[in-house]
Design brief:
CATH class: Alpha Beta
Structural class: alpha/beta
Helix content: 25-40%
Number of strands: 8
CATH topology: Rossmann fold
Shape: globular
Number of domains: 1
Strand order of the largest sheet: 5-4-3-6-7-8
Strand content: 25-35%
Radius of gyration: 16 Å
Length: 181
């Protein structure tokens, strides 16, 4: 299946709910893209991961990670499928708070190394806050790593891409709000 076919199969699997919602950014909205119900379906997760791997191919990432919880399923699927796509990537997960016991780490997974090219993934981007938290944690943990971009399932077109660009981070998404509404 080519990427256009994967996108068409994925599109109806993106859940958009209508009502009164408070987003992770604190903003209010009358619609909500529920990325978790999409990425926790086997078919939709497979399509999304395959599309994201294709989106990342030119940037040649060594690692893929993001902020828990929105990125977790994507990280696992991309990590697994990247091996068969001939561009193996190790995964990592950025905690919202450091671990309260043991090593008190912010980042879980194999150690980040200088020179590694890092892709950050996210389910839904509004203001970019969650993805930028992951970017900043990576920059603190391994200043010698290179953030090549943020890859999202959906960009709500609420300014996240512009905020990321101001911080030197490129945003690429499979869909935008306009594609889905």
């Amino acid at each position: 299946m080519d990427i256009a076919e994967l996108r068409e199969k994925l599109k109806p699997r993106i859940d958009c709910l209508w009502g009164d919602f408070t987003l992770a950014s604190g903003r209010k909205s009358n619609f909500y893209f529920n990325g978790k119900t999409t990425t926790l379906r086997p078919d939709a997760l497979n399509y999304a991961a395959r599309i994201m791997i294709d989106m990342m191919r030119a940037d040649k990432p060594d690692r893929v990670g993001g902020l828990t919880l929105g990125a977790d399923a994507l990280i696992g699927a991309i990590t697994a499928l990247s091996f068969d796509a001939d561009m193996p990537m190790e995964g990592f997960i950025v905690r919202k708070e450091p671990k309260a016991h043991g090593t008190a780490q912010w980042i879980e997974g194999p150690e980040l190394k200088p020179g590694q090219r890092i892709a950050i993934v996210e389910d839904v981007v509004t203001t970019g806050g969650s993805a930028l938290k992951a970017v900043e944690r990576v920059r603190v943990a391994q200043p010698g790593a290179e953030i090549i971009g943020v890859y999202a399932l959906v960009d709500r077109l609420d300014g996240g891409g512009e905020v990321m660009a101001e911080r030197g981070v490129k945003l690429s998404s499979i869909f935008t709000r306009d594609d889905l509404m």
